[in-house]
Amino acid sequence: MANDKAAIQKQQRVVLVTGPSGAGRSTAINVLEDIGYEAIDNLPLSLLPRLLDGPPLDHPLALGIDVRNRDFNVSAMIEMIYTLARQDGVAMELLYLDCSIDVLVRRFSETRRRHPLAPGEAPIQGINREMDLLGPIRTRADVLLDTSDLSPHDLRVEVERWFAPDTGQRLAISVHSFSYKRGVPRGIDMIFDCRFLKNPYWEERLRDYDGRDSQVVDYIATDERFAPFFEKIQELVEMLLPAYIDEGKAHFSIGFGCTGGQHRSVAVAEKLVNALAHNGWQVSIRHREMERRAQAGPATKRGDAE
What we know:
- The protein is of the alpha/beta class.
- It has eleven helices and nine strands.
């Protein structure tokens, strides 16, 4: 039994990520990278055997493959799937991101992207071709996620649920930033109000940046209340997390709010995520208002006083 376990631990975990264009493949690849995978997108199939040649790495691999790959064809990919499934020392899984045709058409329409299989035609032509092309691969999926009704945040949760490495941590932590003007997100376990901190919105040079920018972070940090505020938050959170694990809680969410959800709450949320990740916690982050603005497109005006 011990020898069998050791053999399993020596296997190289490989997740192949594919699916129709617009279904969320890039998002899934980014999530896998965030949770510790070495991610390589659009790797030519002919290079895959060389990548896996040699002893297993100390981290899993996530490989994005789609119709834009230089040497992509269905027969070659199916053969590669069978080869990896039989190869000693490799634990291969195929993640297929699926989506309904209507939703894909809408996504291409909203982003005004050209479909890679129909660069000079309507997206629906390329979508139908790609669906037909990928059908045999879809049937071989180990994990099939339909993203038709999933937000990027929902997709992150699903990918983490299926593929997060087993670190022994039985608590999924998520950190959120939000605007009080648009209400408090539902389902948050612990909320901190950042509206008392110095507001970068009133500095014209910082107004169009967000709390991930070093200039904004440095400006907020000049508030003498910022350092002790964050120190106490981190101390409180790291004291409580083990207690919630002992209670059997599977998920714990922390929210940071400010007026517009762009500067202060984002900066503090990012800082806490970095601190928790540095201390070994598995943590994800979501900036609600920034996601909303990104979905609305560049025409959205920032009229709210952050």
